[in-house]
Design brief:
29% of the residues lie in helices and 13% in strands. The chain is α/β, with parallel strands linked by helices. Keywords: Metal-binding, NAD, Oxidoreductase, Zinc.
């Protein structure tokens, strides 16, 4: 494999993906280790939480993932972790937005909702909706 992207991260779901599928945050990382060529590397930016009090099992509640570290070791893989250096990209992103080259709301699937729709938005987001909700209590964005 030449390049891999973890687009779901900590909230990855196990196969079967239905409403009852449990979170399986190590699924993507273990799959990438299997697919990465010997001597390759995995960059793991973003957020893998250190604890999740609402998780299904005790290990996940402590932020422990079942990673196949032996696979990484046997293949001499390198791992880089940490949060993305977002400040490094602020100016470029701002200029792209100002010059209408990028549409952030579309890129992140954002939807403006009224204050009265907020409970529905929170419930849908909690249930795993792939939508980012922006509260627009005065209706400025929908005008």
């Amino acid at each position: 494999m030449d390049c891999g992207i973890d687009a779901v991260g900590f909230e990855a779901r196990g196969h079967g993906g239905g409403a009852g599928a449990q979170e399986a945050p190590a699924t993507v990382l273990n799959s990438l280790m299997d697919l990465t060529a010997a001597g390759g590397s995995l960059g793991i930016p973003g957020l893998y939480v250190t604890g999740d009090p609402g998780a299904a099992d005790e290990a996940a509640k402590k932020g422990s993932l079942s990673l196949s570290l032996g696979t990484g070791w046997a293949k001499s893989l390198s791992f880089t972790t940490g949060q993305c250096p977002v400040m490094k990209y602020n100016r470029q992103l701002m200029m792209a937005i100002l010059h209408d080259r990028i549409h952030i709301a579309k890129a992140v699937n954002a939807q403006a909702i009224s204050l009265t729709d907020a409970p529905r938005g929170y419930a849908e987001f909690d249930a795993g909706a792939a939508t980012k909700y922006v509260l627009d209590p005065h209706g400025y964005l929908s005008a």
